[in-house]
Amino acid sequence: MADVKTLPGAASAPYLRDADAYLARAYRPFLPAMIAKAEGSLLYDLDGNRYIDFVGGVGCLNVGHSHPKVVAAVIDQAKRFTHTDYTMFPYVPLVELAKRLAPKTRIPNAKGLFFNSGAEAVENAVKIARWATGRPGVIAFDGAFHGRTYMAMSLTSKLHPYKAHYGPYAPEVYRLPYPSATHGPRLDEFRRFLDRAAVTWFDPAQIACVIAEPIQGEGGYIVPVEGFFPLLREFCDQHGILLIADEIQTGYGRTGRFFAMEHEGVVPDLMTCGKSIAAGLPLSAVFGRAEIMDAPAENTLGGTYVGNPVAASAGLAVLDVMEQEGLVARAEEVGQRIRAKLLELMRECRCIGDVRGRGAMLAVEFVRDRATMEPNPEMVARVLRLAMERGLLLMKCGVYNNAIRFLCPLNIPWDVLDEGLDIFAAVVREAKEREAHAEV
């Protein structure tokens, strides 16, 4: 295992003191060190410490850090121009990106709009759905995460740290259980709940859209029960409701398909995408059927920076890298390697209650007792800290903060992946020992 790092180091420490003095605490980082450079799947701080990155900019770096082709595209575009506002003076990269992305959504006759962040994409998808249907209501799900702006936050299900003290929230949002393959409810139970809710809670004729993640991200990498999305599609078609797939974290090859809805055999009416779309540059998108996307009047959607040319050029380079390096297929191989290691560890450690996900979108859930599946967030906090000290960066998720997600770049070298997995296994064993001694 890698040597334990003393953090922060001497070079990072003064900058962290300045951060405490000049940046609000709502923006506090996890790693007590300042990053100096990043390459592929590795980060280096100002003190020269090396870290294996299993966080990937929170899912933004499926093609890795500072990919040479993305960097070259950014530099080339920045030399030509960095901004005009597309609605004033248009440019080619944004049109080309829409042209290449539209068929990947599998939405017939798809058109797109670009924004800055995942939350903006969600906000605008809801606005488009409301305009197209003339209805106000939105259905979201327990455990959902859709962003932190007011409509997106209202759709988000996790109270702490995202929603507490920030109310009141946007109205006309109705929440249903997300039928988890691990925790339930079963599909038949969800169907009964949905049928009853449509009588006692909301009028389907007033619902504009249902928004759902193909796999819940912040909610704990919750994979839905088989048949969930076909049931949603049937319900939406029956009542003239639009189905929005939030692919911001699941998209761009993470699950072994370009978009995760391909696993479900269901085509949504609208789709949001972001994160890895431009290798961490601010860019997101909404795609949908042309008649829906064209429903809002001219210039009723947009923003000063949306779809900026530098990010759009990065987006084109990301697509090139994914295609040339076969990263969608490689996600399956990466996922198989991670899953095998996690299942081996689960057989040894009863503190692991579940290993789940698709492709390279995987999580491990920590519990106190497999029989009750009682969450164990303290174990997760201990594992994250120990891993960080040994040069592996990980990130938690789950409504109870008791799961660890894996978001390494899809082109991570095998030796680096194996090194990271070995560190993870070692620190889980160490954390388990520490917990056992604390209980004595």
TrEMBL record:
PROSITE patterns: AA_TRANSFER_CLASS_3 (PS00600). GO terms for molecular function: 4-aminobutyrate:2-oxoglutarate transaminase activity. Pathway: Amino-acid degradation; 4-aminobutanoate degradation. It is an enzyme of class 2 (transferase). Its EC number is 2.6.1.19, 2.6.1.22. Its cofactor is pyridoxal 5'-phosphate. The keyword tRNA processing does not apply. It catalyses: 4-aminobutanoate + 2-oxoglutarate = succinate semialdehyde + L-glutamate; (S)-3-amino-2-methylpropanoate + 2-oxoglutarate = 2-methyl-3-oxopropanoate + L-glutamate. Keywords: Aminotransferase, Pyridoxal phosphate, Transferase. Pfam families: Aminotran_3. PANTHER family: AMINOTRANSFERASE CLASS III, LEUCINE_METHIONINE RACEMASE. Belongs to the class-III pyridoxal-phosphate-dependent aminotransferase family. This is (S)-3-amino-2-methylpropionate transaminase. The lineage of its organism: Bacteria, Bacillati, Bacillota, Bacilli, Bacillales.
